[in-house]
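User: Hey, quick favor. My workstation is busy. Could you predict this chain's structure for me?
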Amino acid sequence: MGNERIYPCLPCSDLDDSIGFYEALGFTRTYRQLRPNPHAVVGLGELQIHLFGMEGFNPSDSYGTAILAVPDPDGLYHAFAAGLRGKFGKLPTAGIPRILRPRKKYGTVRGFTVVDPGGNWLRIFKLGDSEDQDKPEGLAGMVNVAARLGDAKGDEAAALKTLDNGLARYPDAPAIDRVRALLYRAELALRIGDRVLAQSSLADAQLIQLAEEEQAEVAEELAHVQELMQQE
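Assistant: No problem, here it is.
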């Protein structure tokens, strides 16, 4: 066997709305029909996704998901994010649709998530990557657990509780781990509409002194939270 292909077919309530979303990500519509059933195909390089319209479908009830393995998930994230900023005038990180920035999650590899207008989850990972044998411990490990809950499962409340427990349990954790925990807490707080918690978390993170190389490591995470704060 060789040259096989398999394509996800994902439901949506409005076919053209979903097509427009994928076009904002950089996909090209290659097929569209309304009869005998609504169906479309969007493609980006070797990635092809089939969409089908379902009358009465509620995106919040969707179980649709697809795993996309790509050579450069970080580069793809930035391309997707730019397209969504252009479409929505901001970066959608809560509700449906949304996009969540790349980060490491407990029990899996680094990657990012997109939820399309049909409520379908696209889980994007690095092609050929594998889970590290040595998992971080302490607060860094709890941040990864929180990311699994908040980004991979969509349970922001459980993720926030995990971060709060970690920050309380490891008050002497390395400064960079505390900054990352606080920045992620700010991001999660914005997703659930708690701007006060987001502001205090960001302020606490900015008070922690980091070495120059550590500042560079968290610069993108800090800029992401600051962007989301300005959107609110």
